[in-house]
Amino acid sequence: xxxxxDAAMTSKAWPFEEAxxxxxxxxxxxxxxxxxxxxxxxxxxxxxxIGTFGEVARTTMIRRAFEVISDIPTRLICFSDxxxxxxxxxxxxxxxxxxRQNMQLPLTSVPDPYGEYPSFGAHNNAxxxxxxxxxxxxxxxxxxxxxxxxxxxxxxxxxxxxRYEKIMAIMLASLREERQQTYSCFLPIHPETxxxxxxxxxxxxxxxxxxxxxxxxxxxxxxxxxxxxxKLQWKPDxxxxxxxxxxxxxxxxxxxxxxxxxxxxxxxxxGGRKPNHMSYELFLDDQGQKISKSKGNGxxxxxxxxxxxxxxxxxxxxxxxxxxxxxHFDVIPRAVDEYHQQLRAYPAQDAAGQLNNPVWHxxxxxxxxxxxxxxxxxxxxxxxxxxxxxxxxxxGFINRYAPEASPxxxxxxxxxxxxxVRYFADKIAPTRVFRLPGDxxxxxxxxxxxxxxxxxxxxxxxxxxxxxxxxxxxxxxxPLRDWFKALYEVLLGASDGPRFGGFVALYGIAExxxxxxxxxxxxxxx
Length: 526
Known about the structure:
CATH superfamily of the largest domain: HUPs
Shape: elongated
Oligomer: single chain
Helix content: 40-55%
CATH architecture of the largest domain: 3-Layer(aba) Sandwich
Number of helices: 24
Number of domains: 3
């Protein structure tokens, strides 16, 4: 019988492919530090968006895969670059003018516009940790402010001082001539104003580990590079962090991928070993624009969790990480239903099939049973026609369709019913457009009504679907999709909808007859 580890060593699931590549890093001997270190980075210049979550979720999936194929212990660090100076004010936060008055201060020195935390950086760090804890991720959080000020970064900063010319050569080769004239990998933090300064260096002392520069007013200062007096520019900081922590794996968005040689080169210049990396495609909003913390476009994590479960979001993140993903509300229903399809398929799969199933990676091999006897898409349509304002309003219909189901026995279905009512009210109801049927459509719907009125086949969704299908064929719809499209547009106010037989079985024969009457009379279109 094939063991789990044997199956994992040949699995084509992308987390196992990345895990096997990482294992090769230590083919000859285990890491001296005693563990393999995974890292994710976060820039808390704005509220964490779904891309931030995706990075941690996907890294966790690779970590779990690695733990199947190797006995080497692992750690996951979430590193927040909260010493970064605030260069622009996010558009989606309050107290804009107050924030503008604190430009260029480190994010952990900018007052919290919400008035809840010691700083804006602390607020955004807390939001990140809340999100990660909601999903049960196992991670260690590191604040760059604490990392720099506590001295944990001092040895690397001294080495950066000693190897300044080597680091600068890597950086200058990537910059335009004008930028080369003023660039320094060191950003001093002004002793009086506390602002992060983008100024050229007059001297870098490799013996005393100090830098000398003029501030914006022309005053000369000399500061030690240690103890939080200086931070590194973000590209050098990336590579220096890898060297300081001995990071083994980090993934990042495609927009970082052109900088990979820079990150790697600086890591190696500081005596480190470049980590394995994985570049993922970008997350886009409904207009095809890259989602941004400062703009607040695209879906937030809270918005997704208002309308669907945490697992559905993890499922969405698992799918094709190297393909650009459009992050808008309309992706949620499909993600929910596909996740439950995979849950239902899992028990019958062999070891290889299970390791290729997204739900193994979402749940770390501890895969629950799906209790969703009604699809999320069907619940949305039920919410559309039933007028229900909460999950309880849908359960009368659900119980007629599935008498053995209950909120207690089917908690995932109960939660989905609540999500569906909320999603319909917020996202579907405002966009519905009903229309009257054309002559042929009216004749077909009257025929369908007559057959439903005489129906003796019970609530068998397959039999009902076959009957609806036959009515469309009898009335010459070609393609047949036009028949179902007419049903959706006249009765549900949308161009797409569920398997109509399943909808009738769930909603009820009498209720569907009344719905057809309202559609044919024009009451829905009113």
